[in-house]
Structure formats: C-alpha cells, structure tokens
Amino acid sequence: MNLENLIQISDYEWEIPTYIRSDMRVPVRLFATRELLEQIAGDKSLDQAINAATLPGLVGRVIIMPDMHQGYGFPIGGVAATEFPQGVISPGAIGYDINCGVRLLASNIEFKSARKEMDALATLLNKYCPSGVGKEGAITVSIKELDHVLHDGSRWAMKNGFATEADISRTEEGGCLDGANPDKVSDRAKARGREQIGSLGAGNHFIEVDVVDEIFDENAANVMGLRKGYLTVQIHCGSRGLGHQVCTDYVQQFQSVVKKYGIELPDRELVCAPMDSQEGQSYLGAMRAAANFAFANRQLLAYSARRAFAETFKSKDAYLHQVYDICHNMGKIETHEVDGRQIKVCVHRKGATRAFGPGTPGLPPEYQTIGQPVIIPGSMGTASWVLVGTEDSMARSFGSSCHGAGRVMSRSKAKHEVRGEALRKELEESGIQVRAGSLSGLAEEAPSAYKDVDMVVETVSKAGIARKVARLKPVAVIKG
Amino acid sequence: MKGKGFEEIPHTADWAMRVWANDLPSLFEEAAHGMNTLAGVKLIEGARIKKHFEAKAPDSESLLVAFLSELIYFQEQENLGFSKFDIQILDASNNECRTSADMEGAPIQSVDKAVKAVTFHNLKISKTARGLEVEIVLDV
Q1: Predicted pLDDT at A141
Q2: Could you give the CA distance from residue A147 to residue A186 in angstroms, rounded to a whole number?
Q3: Distance CA A472, CA A379 (A)
Q4: Which domains does chain B have, with CATH numbers?
Q5: How far does A70 lie from chain B, in Å, by closest CA?
Q6: How would residue A416 be classed by pLDDT, with cut points 50, 70 and 90?
Q7: What residue ranges define each of the domains in chain A, with the CATH number in brackets?
Q8: How many other C-beta atoms are found inside a 10 Å radius of the C-beta of residue A321?
Q9: Do A252 and B137 touch (CB under 8 A)?
C-alpha cells in the first residue's frame, strides 16, 4: 500500500480512512513515525491491517502499534474491538500462541556484585527451564489434572506450591480467565499440552536476565520494586502446542461457520463467529482455557527461575518478586468508551499488550495510582523496557500498547546474513551469557532482524499511550 | 513448465513457501517435503514406520491444512517424520474432499526449528502454467 494514502494526524499517528477500500467497516489508526512506517511499507502489514478492518461488529478503529509487521490474516501489533455479544470473535486475530506473554521478576541482587556468577546462573536457568523444539516441560500432568490447569490457570499453580498470592495479584486477570471450558479443548490439544507445561519452547521465546539500566519514573519504579543496577528476569512464552492446536482446530472449524452466518472476509485466516453463537461460545471457552494454560506455564517457569537464583546466590536477596505478567496474544471482554458511550467489547490483541491506565478496575491496589506495568522485550542483545499504561491508552487504543521491537527482516534472510556462532561470540564479548538450543535459531533472532526497540518505545511514549518507567539491559539469554 | 517442487518465499516473521505439482496428491506430497525441509527435519536412517491418515474437509485447501497439521502432530507428539507418501484425494469436486494417505517415515534424529501451525492466510490452490500451485504460510 502506498504511504501517501495515509492521513497524518501527528508525528506519531496516522489513519487509513474507510474510503480506501469498500469492505472496511472502520478506519485503521496507526501509531508510528514516518521512519517506522517506511520500514513496513515493503511487506503486507498495511494490507493485513485493512483486512482486519472488515471483521463484522467492529467498533471505533482498528489500532496498529509501531512494532507492527506482517503476520497471517491479522497483522502483528494489531488491536481490534468487536461489540459484545453480537460482534465476532476471530481465532486468527488472536493467533496460534494464545496468551503468549511476558513475565517480569525482580531481585535484590546488585549486578556488580554478581557479575562472576552470571555463567553459573545462565547454566542453571537453562537446566531448570526446559527449552527447545517440542521439549517436555518441568512436570507432566494427567489429562484430569490438565483440566484443572485449563480451568484455574495460575491458581492451579498456587494450589500446587508453584505460586504465591503476590504472584497471582500481579498477573493480568489474576492469572485465570473466567469462562474457561476445558471440554471445548480437543483431546489432541490436551495431548500436546500435558507434557509441555513448564517449558519455554523455541522460536522467539526466551528467558533473559537483565540489569535495570536506567530509571525514568522513580515513583513507578519504586512501586514495582525496580532498582537501578539490580538484576531482573523476563520470561517470554505462551501456551505451547496446546494453544497452537486450539487455534488450528477452530480456524479449521470456522471455515464452514462463516458460510453458515453469511460472513464474507478477504482472508480465510480471519474466519470468525458471532460471540453469541454456539460456535463463538465454544471458541471463547477453549481460548480462555488455553490462556489459563499459558498463565500456569509462565508461573512454573518463574518457579524454576527462582530455584536457579536461589541455588546460584544462596541469599534471601536472590528471591525474585513478581513485577507483573502481561499477555500480548489474547481476546478479552472489556468495557471501553466508544463514541461517548461505555460498551462491552471483545478486544483482540495480537502482538499488542494490554496497557490499562491508572484507576482502571482489575489492577492490583499498588498499581492503581501508577497504571499497569507494560513489559516490552527488546531483540536479543538490545534493551528491554518497562512502561505503564496511561489515561490516553484507555481513550485512544482500547487500553493497549506495543509488545516488542517487531521483526523487520525475514528469518531466511537473517540466517543468510548472520552466523549463529559468530553472533553468540559477539553477544558474549559484549558481556551477555548465551545458552541456545540451536545456532540457526539464534541467527534468526539476531538483533539486526528487528526494529530499534528504543524507537518503538519512543513512539508509544510520545503518542501518549504509554509512559517510560525503566530500561533493562540483558546480561544472560536462554533460548530454545 | 510442469513437474513438481517447492521454494521458500519471503515472509517477515514466519515461513512461507510456494509449492507446485501436476495434481493434488503430488501437491500435498511436495508441501510435506517443503515443510520438512524448512524445518530441517532429519530422520534416523534404517528404521521405517508406516502410518495411515484419513480426513475430510469442505475444500482441497482445508484438506491440505489438515494433512500438514497431522504431520506437525506426529512430529511433536511421536517424534516421527515422513518422507514417502501414497496419497489419494477423493470426491474433490463435491463440496466435500476426502483424503486417504499412507505415509512412510522414521523417528526424527533432529529438527532445526518446529512449525507451530499451518495457516489459511491467502491459501488458494490455483491452476497455473506449472500445473497446480499454492502458497502456504507456516507459523513458527
């Protein structure tokens, strides 16, 4: 799509009006600089954003974040709200890795006193947090027990000694989506999930030890327990094979469902069902169950990370307290103001983070005044960011912000341009411990394959839909 | 130009491939080979295992997704990969396609990168100068 067709609202905001294509139901609002827009002009991101704007029941605008890139069906970095209950829910607009997200933990260990232990810490994290292609998880649960995981999410983890009340309180939705229905998850999905709980997987998922490099908002950082120079841990993963199978099952089923409801779409990956239909309710129940699996999965990985810290540092300061756990692939029923009225909507976020502003119901009491922590992992070797949601994010982006740096280079090109071994050496020479299951996988995730995360964060910050709190610098990376 | 084959095509975040063949069974077979090649699947030599797969779907694209998804499932759950296929497509014109496939393979020795899912993104099997052609986007 030609960028000249976009209407510039400000230096950080652009709009694709509905007259661009006759099947658009709502406009598309992009948060990006011209430079970031030019980076994605070469792929199909903008066409996919326009396709997303054709879903039945949309309200307001389709929102696109500055880390956007081409996906399949729905662009990565997209947010779309459909009116509840008559609007649709689209599995492809949530993605295969249901409730992929990031958890941030923080310690009282100062990096300068722990530099020598980083090698041992990385080795233990790699040992206790299973990663890699199809790897089995820390534990295996029976199918009956798995149903409890799907129903209760992080609360199942707490009942079994893997979580604390504080963890639950500082997890989006308390780590458990109401309305999960394990009966709507196929046997095949359950078979894929029961052996993988507590595992990281492969692809862009990782565990990263970071040091708090700079604080931008002292008050918010204090509330979160973030101190300059101290160690933190990020855990990035989702619902593993269970979530992938749930999405696969429902995208296949909905191919005929759209015909039943007379829904015409420009891309078969966007298939959907009205939320008040039997099919829509089945997917909602299954999707929430997969989301709960992901919450429990990150909780088990957090438990394993705590074990690695405790064994490495043998000090009470090594305890990793939870800052927050956020989701960036999810469909959630929320209330937002649209055209002056408060309405219930299903907010589809695919590669976008919920970013609720101060005072929003559902946030833990200590975050009510500062807003919800928003965790933005960078590309391997570059900074990550901690932000908070704002009043503006509630008003202009359905309480959402960006989710990462966003890819700019294909995996095949990255593998051709970057040698995994050379990259590992380069990262280690810059002081980052690396544990990687696959060197080619490491090359695919090279920092040069991603946009500049600082530019992405600067954009959401200047646009007003998030506020900077702290920047993190990596010191150890564990990848599948 | 006829024959069969596959090639990787650019995709920013995931994998995409173009597959072509003279007929639907060969197209399915090439798609399976293409997916295995992109994922870097290496099988243990010697040991051979046979599996049978049957499915029905409203159209041949849906059937292709079901077939490739089955391969992902075998790879992840049973550590099996397949290199030989005898595929039959039945009733492809009747709003209901069915496939019956005998697959021969072996336990997997190594995989570079797993495919999470096969998408329907812009999935359309078309008649071209190369016979039948399709572009498939794989979530990785």
Answers
A1: 86
A2: 11
A3: 12
A4: 5-139 (3.55.10.10)
A5: 6
A6: confident
A7: 3-91+98-408+450-479 (3.90.1860.10)
A8: 15
A9: no
Q: Please compute the mean of the pLDDT values over residues A296-305 and round it to a whole number.
A: 96
Confidence band of A413 (pLDDT split at 50, 70, 90): confident
Name the 3-class secondary structure at B66.
helix
- Using the Cβ of A97 and the Cβ atoms of chain B, whether some distance falls under 8 Å is answered with yes
Q: Which run of H or E residues covers position A221?
A: helix A218-224
CB A23 within 8 A of CB A29: no
Q: Which residues of B touch A43 (CB under 8 A)?
A: 12
Residues A256-268 have pLDDT tens digits of 999 999 999 999 9
Express as a percent the part of chain A with pLDDT over 90. 84
Structural contact between residues A7 and A37, judged by C-beta atoms closer than 8 angstroms: no
Nearby residues of A161 by Cβ (< 8 Å), 6 or more positions away? none
Q: Which of A80, A20, A32 is nearest to A272 (CA)?
A: A80
Question: Is A348 one of the annotated active-site residues of the chain?
Answer: no
Among all chains, which residue has been given the structure tokens 């700019």? Answer: A408
b/e burial code for range A250-260 (CB count within 10 A of at least 16 → b): bbbebbebbee
pLDDT band at B112 (very low <50, low <70, confident <90, very high): confident
Given pLDDT bands bounded at 50, 70 and 90, which one contains residue A135? Answer: low
Q: CA angle, A291 as apex, A285 and A296 as ends, to 5°?
A: 125
**Torsions phi, psi for B52 (to 5 deg):** -120, 140
DSSP A246-294: HHHHHHHHHHHHHHHTT---S-GGG--EETTSHHHHHHHHHHHHHHHHH
- pLDDT, mean of residues B21-42: 96
pLDDT of residue B94: 64
Q: Which of B121, B124, B137 to mutate to test the interface with A (most CBs of A within 10 A)?
A: B121
Question: Strands B117-118 and A28-31, how do they pair?
Answer: unpaired
**Residue B137's closest chain A neighbor by CA?**
A72
Q: How close does chain A come to B24, measured CA to CA in Å?
A: 19
Cβ of residue A140 closer than 8 Å to a chain B Cβ? no
Residue type, B39: A
pLDDT in tens, A46-67: 999 999 999 999 999 999 999 9
Q: How far is Cα of residue A101 from the mean position of the Cα atoms in its chain? A: 3
Angle of the A187-194 helix axis to the A278-313 helix axis, nearest 10: 0
